[in-house]
Design goal:
single chain, 178 residues, mainly alpha, 0% strand
C-alpha cells in the first residue's frame, strides 16, 4: 500500500521529468535563447528538489527496513516454540541445507512407504490367486485319481463290449534276469 508521501513523491518526480523533456530542443524548431536561459535555473532547482526528496525517501526506507533479526534468546520456553519465535530468518538461513535435506528424506520416506504398500497389495493378490490355483489342482487331481481306480476302469470296460481289453485270469509272473 502506498502512502501519501510516496504518491506525492512520484507525482513530483513525474512533473520534474516533463519539463526536462520539453526543454530538449526538437530537430525542426530552435527555441529562443532567452526562453532557454529562463528555463535552465528553474530546471536546476527542480532537479535539486527531486534529488533532495529521493534522499529523504531513501533515508525513510533505511529507517524502516532492517536486515538484522532479533537475536534468539538462549532460554527456550514452550511459549517461544509454540509462538514460532525460534524460527527467525537468521536461523533459517543458517540451517537451510539441513531443512532441504530433511524435506528430501521425508519425501523419499513417503515414496518408499507408498511403493511398499503397493507391493504388499500385489503380493496379497498373487497369494490369493496361488491359493485358488492350488485348490483347483487338488480338485482335478482328486477327480483324476477317482477315475483311474481299478473298479471304475473295469466298469468302463464292461460298458464298452467292443473293447479287446479284459481282466487277466492268471497272476502276474516275476521274471528274474541273471
Amino acid at each position: 500500500m502506498k502512502k501519501k508521501d510516496d504518491i506525492e513523491l512520484e507525482i513530483e518526480v513525474a512533473q520534474a521529468e516533463e519539463p526536462a523533456v520539453a526543454a530538449e530542443p526538437a530537430a525542426a524548431e530552435t527555441p529562443a535563447p532567452e526562453a532557454v536561459e529562463e528555463e535552465v535555473p528553474s530546471l536546476k532547482e527542480e532537479v535539486a528538489e527531486v534529488k533532495e526528496q529521493t534522499k529523504k525517501a531513501i533515508r525513510k526506507i533505511k529507517e524502516n527496513v532492517k536486515e538484522e533479526d532479533p537475536k534468539f534468546s538462549p532460554a527456550m520456553t514452550l511459549r517461544t516454540i509454540l509462538g514460532g519465535d525460534f524460527l527467525t530468518a537468521e536461523m533459517v538461513r543458517h540451517q537451510i541445507w539441513l531443512i532441504v535435506l530433511v524435506v528430501m528424506f521425508a519425501i523419499i520416506h513417503v515414496a518408499f512407504r507408498y511403493q511398499c504398500q503397493q507391493d504388499m497389495i500385489a503380493i496379497d493378490k498373487m497369494e490369493k490367486e496361488l491359493l485358488d490355483a492350488k485348490y483347483k489342482a487338488l480338485s482335478s487331481s482328486s477327480t483324476l485319481t477317482e477315475k483311474c481306480r481299478e473298479s471304475h476302469v473295469l466298469e468302463a470296460l464292461k460298458q464298452n463290449r467292443d473293447s479287446l481289453l479284459h481282466i487277466s485270469d492268471q497272476p502276474p509272473y516275476i521274471i528274474y534276469v541273471p
